[in-house]
Amino acid sequence: MRRAWLCTPLLLATGGCNATQSTLDVFGAEAREIRHIAMILTVGAIVILAIVVALYVRAVRAPEGRLSHEAGMRMVLWVGAIGPAVILAALLVYALPAMRPRPTSPVDMVIRVEGEQFWWRVAYVPPGATPMLSANEVRVPVGRTVAFELTAQDVLHSFWIPGLAGKMDMIPGRTNRLVVRAEKAGRYRGVCAEFCGLSHALMAFDVIAMPADAFDAWLARDSVSIARSAGRGAALFDAQGCGGCHAIRGTSHVATIGPDLSHFGERLTVGAGILPPSVEATAAFIRAPQATKPGVRMPAYPQLSDADARMIATYLKGLR
Amino acid sequence: MTDRGKWHERLKVTLWTLIVPPILWAGHFLFSYLWAAISCAKAGAFMTFPIVFVAGTLLALALIGLSGWIAWRQGGTPGSSAPHEDGTDIDRLRFIAKSTLLLAGLSFVGVLFTVLPVIFLRDCM
User: Fold this and answer.
1) Pairwise CB contact (< 8 Å): A99 & B120
2) Residue range B13-38: mean pLDDT, rounded
3) Domain ranges (residues) in chain A
4) Using CA atoms, how far apart are residues A290 and A298, in angstroms rounded to an integer?
5) Is the interface score ipTM higher than 0.85?
6) Domain A232-317, what fold?
7) Pairing relation of β-strands A204-210 and A137-141?
């Protein structure tokens, strides 16, 4: 029974442990600095707490009159006022430089991300080239400085990739800059960190840190024209009016109301980081998006048969 | 010592002078916000040599230091030994003087902590 009491806080403390969305398991320089500061603050706080408790115990046990009034006052002055002021000043001087943004140059990659209820509009803007549109997934080159330009379309959102950097608010009508540098390739996860509506908790995205060469090749593939097959799925996509909101490069669909689906097939999740990238999950989302994402703006398609929804999903999964 | 040399003793610390250091701290805090907001709005960045900010900060620190010094001198009025906790005029004076001195110390540190971000941060975000 006593062990159960110990286990509960331990389970609560370790329940969130994972490698893809963690401020402790980092892959970016900014997050590494933040973790370093957090470690120093935590260890320092434990040391100070131990000293205070030790002094308290000593004071309670000491016989009355052991310290003169003057000596006691001197201790209050040094340990209670001057000591904490000096420690806090030192911590402030140590931690403030971390708030300075990383310097950027004009050749650095800019990634524009706009928060919408409840997904992410992403545009890669390489210097001197046309932007490449995407959604619900962010790819960053390892070892290069990347500047995120963040804004929102409807309400406040907050862009947070815990393993890469601190969070930054996305405010309608304003562009915030977040400069980062990934240091380790891998698959990670980002989330919306500001309550934005019913599906706020279901507004996430995949983050893929790629070796710089692979990133360049990935980004360049859109400069060649993409041939899109015209099958039953594509015909259904047209007939159901999906193109009224979604764009697919290489087709006549260029709308920008909903997420860009040009490379839907390579996404690691469906519905902004919440569903597995399967045909079944995609088909179910098309027929009833509200079922998995309350408050989503995409209309439901209950009139669509399961087979037709699967056809569209299969077509989308083929877009690479 | 002439009367002229004891002006800080003639200026008795009261409950009104007690609140001078925190008011200076609060005033400097407001001044810092206004200075940063006006700089960012008019110049788009913190000024390269923020003379107004430096002057305002030095003035606040000097006035806080002065009130702390006056309080310290008055708290040190010779007399009976500690603790000074009787309902007499001299003990009341010592109490208010010590409180003013402590508040001056806190306000001094508070102003310095308000200034530090300006030294380290140079952009309006």
Assistant:
1) yes
2) 88
3) 109-222, 232-317
4) 8
5) no
6) Immunoglobulin-like (2.60.40)
7) parallel
Q: What angle do CA B117, B123, B125 make, to 5 degrees?
A: 100
List strands edge to edge, sheet with A176-181: A132-135, A119-125, A109-116, A145-152, A176-181
Q: Which residue range(s) make up the domain with B45?
A: 16-78+93-120
B24 belongs to a structural domain: yes
Cα separation of A133 and A74, whole Å? 65
B74 contact partners, CB below 8 Å, separation of at least 6: B8, B9, B12, B13, B93, B94, B97
Residues of B in contact with A67 (CB under 8 A): none
pLDDT above 70 covers what percent of chain A?
98
- Does pLDDT of B3 surpass 50? no
Q: How far apart are CA A260 and CA A243, in angstroms?
A: 10
Which residues have a Cβ under 8 Å from the Cβ of A148 and sit 6 or more positions away? A110, A111, A112, A113, A159, A168, A177, A178, A179, A180
Looking at beta carbons, which residues of chain A come within 8 Å of B82?
69-70, 73
Establish if B109 belongs to a structural domain.
yes
Quote the mean pLDDT of chain B: 81
Of A70, A89, A96, the CB nearest to B120: A96
Determine the 3-state secondary structure of A187 from DSSP: strand
CA distance A90 to chain B (A): 11
Query: For residue A174, which residues of chain B lie inside 8 Å, CB to CB?
Result: none
For chain B, the domain total comes to 1
Q: State which residue of chain A sits closest to B101, comparing Cα positions.
A: A77
Q: Which CATH architecture has domain A109-222?
A: Sandwich (2.60)
Closest CA to B92 of B12, B22, B23: B12
Contact between B116 and A100 using a beta-carbon 8 Å cutoff: no
Q: Which residues of chain A lie closer than 8 angstroms to B46, CB-CB?
A: none
Q: How many CA atoms lie within 13 A of A298 on its CB side?
A: 29
Do the beta carbons of residue B107 and residue B21 sit within 8 Å? yes
Smallest Cα distance from B4 to chain A, Å: 33
Nearest to B111 by CA among B26, B2, B12: B26
* Tens digit of each residue's pLDDT (9 = 90 or more) over A18-62: 889 999 999 999 999 999 999 999 999 999 999 999 989 988 998
Q: Would residue B115 count as lying in a domain?
A: yes
Burial of B59 (0-12, 13-18, 19+ CB in 10 A): middle
In a domain, B36, yes or no: yes
